[in-house]
Amino acid sequence: MAEPRISLITLGSRNLAKSRRFYVDGFGWEPVFENEEIIFYQLNGVILATFADAALKEDMVAGELYRPGAFAIAHNVREEGEVEALMTDLAAAGGRILRRADAPPIGGLRGYVADPDEHAWEIAYNPGFAIDNDGNILFGT
Amino acid sequence: MAEPRISLITLGSRNLAKSRRFYVDGFGWEPVFENEEIIFYQLNGVILATFADAALKEDMVAGELYRPGAFAIAHNVREEGEVEALMTDLAAAGGRILRRADAPPIGGLRGYVADPDEHAWEIAYNPGFAIDNDGNILFGT
Description:
2 copies of one chain form a homodimer.
Chain A lengths: L7 E6 L2 H12 L3 E4 L3 E5 L4 E6 H8 L10 E6 L5 H11 L3 E7 L6 E6 L5 E6 L4 E2 L5 E2 L3
Parallel strand pairs in A: 1-4, 5-8
Antiparallel strand pairs in A: 2-3, 3-4, 6-7, 7-8, 9-10
Helix pairs in contact in A: 1-3
């Protein structure tokens, strides 16, 4: 059995400078490493990488990669009021609003913003999921 | 500035039973919640969700979602020998090998396996990235 773990999420990018603006100016995250091909951001025990499309395809030995892909990454916030504020910042940094913030069936508040490479981020306030001091989420606590 | 955090990764699924087999029998991860539409797995401070495609599209208000998407999720292991062993388990549980394990330019060992919904997992041993006791990864340490 493998330990239950994700180590990195790597997002293909068509234009790393535009992507960088979204993550640095929109989320306010600082790269821990960057060159012309890849940028790394240290998150809560997980590294986010944005990687030039051609290099990602070569590394994966993928035929063709498509967008938007059938996935979303969620960033949960601690206070309900942070959802719309962050979505506004992300849109101002080159993101595209997919769904304005509203209440999902389980309660709370969430909206979706696509990054400049069409990768979907859900920005959510979910009172049913605890966020600890390190920013980690625990299911149903 | 938003805290540097990913809370959930949600992967669209065309067949949750096949997907479940890959994560439960392949990785050996136990769901913390499941119904006909969604399955949650608690990982290192991040939750992995597999969500029926139609429900994900409705939640995101997405037009069309495509696969394979331009992204990969990495699961790093602690010992080099674990890479091929885990890839074998994943292939036996319905995964498809995209790239057999070999050494990337930075050293170590990595391969890629697609889950039954064509989402790419990189299985990697990277001696340059430390994995702490909680399974978290720290860049360049």
